[in-house]
Design goal:
Largest sheet: 9 strands, mixed
Shape: globular
CATH topology: Rossmann fold
Order of helices and strands: EHHHEEEHEHEHEHHHHHHHHEHEHH
CATH architecture: 3-Layer(aba) Sandwich
Distance between the termini: 39 Å
Length: 373
């Protein structure tokens, strides 16, 4: 099936009422005295955020902001793929795919869309298994399968050549889109790229700056990376809690945002409460917290890592909380641009949309498509 159908976000009022009822009826866990954030999300903080979600946050306003952009859905490889398609007024604009990560959604790109739509035709998919694409009907949606589906989406939209940007999970998928269709994907731009050494000799060859970054990555894995193991090994166990308890889902997401944003003490200091709650609401209303977690299982099991270098020109944006290491990145990618930023964090489309937009313009307009500006 290749039909592309218009889509509009329209959460039933009964679902909004049910969310509020569940939040108001939460059974709160007691805190161990004096532990603060050292053992996870404190109850007092979570209660305040949940109370605002129930009685202050206006889902309908954010739903209307999503519906301000043209949205569509199509079936590819047996699953639904939802996407925004924001065409520039310039018919010669560069086609560009924007890929969100976890725990993000298409809502993360609202500022970036405004900053780029003059020069780019923007295609912003909900990754299969995430948000408005809904859960896939079967397991097996690896990054490679997702990459193939998104290249098929661009073919259906009539784009012969295009660029791809992705962060977090999107930084796994974007390079694989290039590998899947190197004759069509002209360039790949990523942030929050995960880079791994080929062996201990690669680590020993690092200079002092890269060695510090590698050690910081190891500390992050030890201190804050437990969620990767849980989602990569037992996603369905987690899914039961997240599908039933909005407070539990909120705690899981809030901790990730606190750990991965820049220097803010609280996640809503970096992003704002409404921004955080919009992403959590998307997962709650679409019932995709579980299927999104299953994507980590697919990444941990049976997905081979590339053993060659992708020929597609690649730009890597490194924000302060990222741990990308260039010598490792160059083993798998043809890196032609490497930019390090002094502000922002793991979610630059939300934290630093201006610098991210400028880097995307420079890479795709000046280096890849060589368009006059």
């Amino acid at each position: 099936m290749s039909d592309i159908r218009p889509y509009r976000v329209a959460v039933p009022e009964s679902d909004v009422d049910d969310l509020r009822r569940r939040l108001r009826g939460t059974r709160w866990a007691p805190d161990p005295p004096g532990t603060g954030w050292s053992r996870g999300v404190p109850t007092a903080y979570l209660r305040g955020l949940a109370a605002y979600w129930a009685d202050g946050y206006d889902w309908r306003r954010h739903e209307a902001e999503l519906n301000a952009h043209p949205q569509f859905v199509t079936e590819i490889d047996g699953t639904a793929v939802h996407f925004l398609h924001v065409r520039s007024a310039d018919p010669g604009a560069v086609p560009l795919v924007l890929l969100h990560g976890w725990p993000g959604s298409v809502a993360d790109f609202r500022d970036l869309i405004g900053a780029l739509r003059d020069a780019f035709h923007l295609v912003v998919p909900s990754l299969p298994g995430f948000g408005f694409s809904g859960p896939p009907p079967e397991p097996g949606w690896t990054d490679d399968r997702t990459a193939g589906a998104l290249n098929e989406l661009m073919r259906r939209l009539g784009y012969a050549e295009y660029g791809v940007h992705g962060g977090d999970v999107g930084a796994f998928v974007a390079p694989r889109m290039g590998r899947d269709a190197p004759h069509r994907v002209r360039g790949v731009h990523v942030n929050a790229l995960v880079t791994v050494p080929g062996g201990e000799e690669d680590v020993e060859a690092l200079d002092d700056a890269d060695r510090k970054r590698f050690e910081a990555m190891r500390r992050w894995q030890d201190d804050e990376g437990a969620y990767l193991r849980v989602q990569g090994t037992s996603p369905q166990t987690l899914a039961h809690a997240h599908h039933d308890s909005p407070a539990g889902l909120l705690a899981w997401f809030a901790e990730r945002y606190r750990d991965l944003t820049g220097t803010a003490d609280l996640p809503d200091d970096a992003l704002g409460r409404d921004t955080l709650l919009t992403d959590v609401s998307v997962y709650w209303f679409t019932g995709t917290a579980g299927s999104a977690a299953h994507s980590y299982y697919e990444r941990f099991h049976g997905q081979a890592e590339p053993d060659d270098r992708s020929p597609v020109p690649t730009a890597v944006a490194v924000f302060p909380t990222d741990h990308a290491i260039r010598p490792f990145a160059e083993r798998a990618n043809t890196v032609v641009r490497w930019t390090e930023f002094d502000r922002g964090g793991h979610f630059p489309a939300l934290e630093a949309p201006g610098p991210l937009a400028a880097d995307l313009r420079t890479f795709f307009l000046d280096q890849i498509f060589e368009r006059p500006r």
